[in-house]
Write a structure and sequence with these properties.
Elements: H1 6-15, H2 20-25, H3 34-40, H4 51-73, E1 75-77, E2 83-85, E3 104-107, H5 109-112, E4 116-120, H6 125-134, E5 142-150, E6 163-172, H7 180-204, H8 206-211, E7 220-223, H9 224-230, H10 236-246, E8 249-253, E9 278-280, E10 286-288, E11 291-298, E12 303-312, H11 316-326, H12 335-341, E13 348-354, H13 355-362, H14 378-385
Parallel strand pairs: 1-5, 7-8
Antiparallel strand pairs: 2-4, 3-4, 5-6, 6-13, 8-11, 9-10, 11-12, 12-13
Helix pairs in contact: 4-7
């Protein structure tokens, strides 16, 4: 058996950090059991495209989005790992309480003479920043990946699966680019590409535009603190649902820093997005965070629908601050974190855009399984079959 490593000890420590804050974070309309999911799935759903046309439309939109993201953000497509060495520290733990751990396995290799303890990636977030150095990216240049991952600890519902596909992208930036204005301009470019993909699909399949209203031309940009002020008595996810009734497509700044109620809008990992740097609102109020999420109202599921999460990445100062706040300073011993502390990798901005989430929205589907192939429990497949939801197998 492989010996226990320092990384094993650190990962084990993280898995013990469940807290009341995490429980509060999960409050709201998140789906937690199949009785609730059965009540949520639409009973009046009719797919607008049959499976073959769905795949044709999906790949047409995928090609457009990849080409246009490259043009808008100055990104080149590169290969991305499916598995990584555990000791590298580049895998993504998704949040900061250790509740979502990666699939890991031992590679005996050469009769245990040169073994590797490997993990299936949960996202390429940290790997991408290291890759900027490997590919020699200068400020304003970046990379785009067609990322695949496994997240075994998700509850499998209508828009969460164990199989994850994302457009994971990263771009090198200058110190003076670490502003909300720069983040906002970048997010607007991404939204422009999503709108172009929607227009392409509506031209090819007019029924998509006839059955439901189009996405707004522009996103509404709001800070998590302002959403809390507007709905102080609602849990976090219910606040998102409420704000989407006013603005059906939003970008929420500042996810991770404790708000006025002393809880973060949502827990975020401490070692990639910068959610702790002080910023100013448009009217001069002090805020925190250079990151955020794109959320839209999905008229098919009649629920909030997350498309993208990301932002400007940590500096060595904000990395230490966030690891300290999260009780994870030991992670500074890992290669990825050491590279940030030694200024060996570029400052950057990046995000993960859910591919199947985006296609589910644009193709007006009620379930992620209509646009991606993965495993689903029988209970969910029975629910979907009873509602004309064709889950691919």
């Amino acid at each position: 058996m492989p010996t226990k490593t320092r990384f094993d000890e650190l990962a084990g420590r993280r898995s013990q950090m469940a807290s009341a804050a995490k429980e509060a974070d999960l409050a709201g309309p998140g789906i937690g059991d199949y009785d609730e999911l059965e009540r949520m799935l639409p009973d009046d759903y009719t797919p607008l495209l049959e499976p073959r046309e769905t795949m044709r439309g999906l790949y047409a939109a995928k090609r457009l989005i990849e080409d246009r993201l490259g043009e808008e953000l100055n990104l080149m497509q590169v290969q991305v790992p499916l598995i990584v060495d555990r000791e590298s520290g580049v895998n993504d733990y998704l949040d900061r309480d250790g509740s979502r751990t990666p699939v890991s396995f031992h590679i005996a290799n050469d009769h245990e003479q040169h073994p590797i303890d490997a993990e299936v990636v949960q996202a390429a977030t940290k790997w991408k920043r290291m890759a900027l150095r490997e590919f020699g990216m200068r400020a304003g240049e970046g990379l785009l990946t067609d990322m695949r991952a496994v997240r075994k600890d998700y509850f499998l519902d209508h828009d969460h699966s164990a199989y994850v596909d994302q457009w994971d992208w990263e771009r090198a930036i200058r110190p003076q680019d670490r502003t909300l204005d720069y983040l906002t301009a970048t997010v607007r470019s991404i939204w422009k590409v999503i709108k172009e993909a929607e227009a392409l699909l509506h031209e090819r399949y007019p029924v998509l535009g006839e059955a439901y209203p189009p996405l707004p031309d522009e996103l509404e940009f709001l800070h998590a603190e302002d959403i809390l002020a507007a709905y102080p008595d609602l849990p976090r996810k219910q606040r998102e649902t409420a704000i989407l009734q006013e603005h059906p497509a939003v970008f929420i700044y500042g996810i991770g820093w404790p708000l006025a109620d002393e809880l973060p809008h949502e827990l975020r990992a401490a070692d990639y997005d910068d959610w702790s740097t002080e910023t100013l609102s448009a009217d001069g109020r002090p805020m925190h965070g250079l990151n955020g999420d794109i959320l839209v109202w999905n008229p098919v599921t009649r629920r909030r629908h997350e498309l993208m999460s990301g932002g400007i990445r940590v500096t060595k100062e904000s990395l230490v601050r966030q690891l300290e706040l999260s009780g994870q300073l030991d992670f500074l011993e890992l290669p990825y974190h050491r590279a940030i502390m030694a200024d060996e990798i570029p400052l950057s901005i990046g995000a993960g855009i859910g591919q199947s989430r985006t296609m589910m929205l644009l193709l007006r589907k009620a379930h992620l399984g209509e646009v991606s192939v993965t495993v689903w429990p029988q209970v969910l497949k029975r629910m979907c079959a009873a509602r004309s939801i064709h889950v691919l197998e």
